[in-house]
Amino acid sequence: MPAKITRELFDQVILPVYAPAQFIPVKGQGSRVWDQNGEEYIDFAGGIAVNALGHCNPRLVKALHEQSEKLWHVSNVFTNEPALNLAQKLIDNTFADRVFFANSGAEANEAAFKLARYYAAQRYSPYKSKIIAFYQSFHGRTFFTVSVGGQAKYSDGFGPKPADIIHVPFNDLDAVKAVIDDHTCAIVLEPVQGEGGLTSATPEFLQGVRKLCDEYKTLLVFDEVQCGMGRTGSLYTYQQYGVTPDILTSAKALGGGFPISAMLTTNDIASVMHPGVHGTTYGGNPLACAVACEAFDIINSPEVLEGVQNRRALFIEQLEEINDKFKLFRQYRGKGLLLGAELQPEYHNKARDFLNAATESQVMILNAGPNVLRFTPSLLITEDEIKEGMRRLTKAVEKVVNA
């Protein structure tokens, strides 16, 4: 007999690297989710900024269904129409000339970092391999990407780390100037640090970093895995700064819930690559690319992108009502619907407590570190869903504050 599907089964059969909520979601529609008992939840988490168009968006379901009856997978021994279609959309709407498809943000970043080092070695010197990254950054869970990420807790304990990676404080241009040299191949950053507390880069910092990269013949790599694809109110966040990277990575919302990622770059940088230097079996598969094409068309529309700031304003208005009652938040961080609410010092290290209480009150939220509540809902979430979710969050906050 098949095992009964319960939360307890997770603890028996899944590698213990996660601590999921006690309920199991079984159905989603828009910004609402239902569990095994039929209880309804408002989703302010969006699968960690993945479900940018909500659950089971009808246009994505239709695209997936139609492609599922045509072609699922052929590998990269062959190309396919949806992959070429998606690549062209990305190129037409960004700085990029070339695209590489993978399956996750970590894989896109792995490709980006490998490309940066390979380009430097081919064009300049094999000793031009230093990567400058930033404390509190997060770039994925492969050994290379977790080493570039600026949080040792994710990379310690796995043996010798990839070498020639240096970390400095975010938004500190002088710190970058102190370590950059002719051996630096890349500076890697998130325009808005996701897991690191939703800290946004300042315009002066990004402009200064771009200038340093040009001066030292260093590639500027933007990780827009979380902050890209409409999340901050423009297709990609770099477009708000007037600073163009040399390489950009995209994932999460790119497929609207279907696993896919992309690395974008220029013809010049791509020209050092040749068949066999890098690859992936599943990257660019027709199912993922067909869904991502539809997601791209929906997200890259004026009504969706312009609606992000209106929804952010309503979120902050509702959070301020909570703040008036409980004096909980110190400031709001991030951009658009990559929104962080930093807790007052007396509630530091309690972000997870508020997350758990919110789940009990049937609203799904996230944290970004121990001191920031994170909200990454669907870009299409309705005003009524925001207000209902905030009513539930108010009850959760009251439980924690009065505990």
DSSP helical segment count: 14
Terminal Cα span: 43 Å
Looking at the overall shape, the CATH architecture of the largest domain is: 3-Layer(aba) Sandwich
Order of strands across the main sheet: 4-10-9-8-7-5-6
Q: How many domains in all?
A: 2
SS class: alpha/beta
Largest sheet: 7 strands, mixed
CATH topology-level fold name of the largest domain: Aspartate Aminotransferase, domain 2
CATH class of the largest domain: Alpha Beta
CATH homology-level superfamily of the largest domain = Type I PLP-dependent aspartate aminotransferase-like (Major domain)
> How large is the radius of gyration?
21 Å
Q: Give the proportion of residues in helices.
A: 25-40%
Secondary structure topology:
Blueprint: H1 7-13, E1 25-29, E2 32-35, E3 40-43, H2 46-49, H3 58-68, H4 81-92, E4 98-102, H5 105-123, E5 130-134, H6 143-148, H7 152-155, E6 165-168, H8 173-179, E7 184-189, H9 203-215, E8 219-223, E9 247-250, E10 261-265, H10 267-270, H11 286-299, H12 302-326, E11 329-335, E12 338-343, H13 351-360, E13 363-364, E14 366-367, E15 372-375, H14 383-401
Helix pairs in contact: 3-11, 4-11, 12-14, 13-14
